[in-house]
Amino acid sequence: MTPTPLNDSHRDPAAPAHDVVLFDMFGVIARHQSADGKERLAALAGEPAPAFWDAYWGLRHSYDRGDVTGAAYWRQVADALGTDFDDARIARLVEADLASWSAVDATMVALLDELTAAGQPIALLSNIPEELAAHYEERHSWLKLFQVCAFSCRIGHAKPEPEAYRWCLDALGVEPGRVLFVDDREDNIRAAETVGVRGHLFTTPARLREVLRISA
């Protein structure tokens, strides 16, 4: 697939050329975990919060990458905590985990609409487990705006692994230097740059508009 570049009539002549803008999802388009959601998860686990979060994040990468299912992930978390979660509790933990990651930034969704309306190809690279990917696909039609949706659980690679970015480049059929990657984590930006992709460390939608030379 060769993306169609943004129509020049919609872009400042001084702006850099981006054949594709590659977006991270959580922390850019979708919100990070909600405070209420995090409290609910820790309460459901029934373990001290510091130990719970150490296990949650320490085992998350393989879950995001699709190496394990949600049920297997939560059993691993239980093992790390020296406890046991039965099937009913695992089901509640999976549900609570999905809910904790469900908030979306409407301002950023509007920006995606604006970009695609102007002819700018966009793509998505997200560290996300299968259950959460399916949850988003069922609820958010804006995912169809992306020419490529690279969910870590389905491509077998998770940021900041260089292979995750290379997978996107292969799927898009575009040279690395023609891609702008937008992420809120500096380690992910640095990893993208090692394969030749240009990066923007996301802070606010307004700042991203400046980088993309889009008027508010």
Q: What structural class results from the helix and strand content?
A: alpha/beta
Let me know the largest β-sheet: 5 strands, parallel
Overall CATH class of the largest domain: Alpha Beta
What is the alpha-carbon Rg in Å? Answer: 18 Å
Helical amount: 40-55%
Q: What portion of the residues fall into strands of 2 or more residues?
A: 5-15%
Query: What gross morphology would you assign?
Result: globular
Task: Round the mean pLDDT to the nearest integer and report it.
Answer: 92
So how many helices? 11
Query: How many E-type strands?
Result: 5
Write down the secondary-structure element order: EHHHHHHEHEHHEHEH
End-to-end separation in angstroms reads 30 Å
Q: Can you tell me the CATH superfamily of the largest domain?
A: HAD superfamily/HAD-like
CATH topology of the largest domain: Rossmann fold
User: What are the low-pLDDT stretches, counting only 5+ consecutive residues below 50?
Assistant: 1-16
* CATH architecture descriptor name of the largest domain: 3-Layer(aba) Sandwich
Number of domains: 2
Concise summary:
The chain is built from 11 helices and 5 strands. With 216 residues, it is an alpha/beta fold.
Notes on the structure:
- The chain has 216 residues and is α/β, with parallel strands linked by helices.
- The protein has two domains: 8-31 and 104-212, HAD superfamily/HAD-like (Rossmann fold), CATH 3.40.50.1000; 35-100, no CATH class.
- It has eleven helices and five strands, in the order βααααααβαβααβαβα.
- It has a five-stranded parallel β-sheet with strand order 3-2-1-4-5, sandwiched between helices.
- α1 (35-45) runs antiparallel to α5 (87-100) and α4 (70-81) packs across α5 (87-100).
- The model is unreliable at 1-16 (pLDDT under 50).
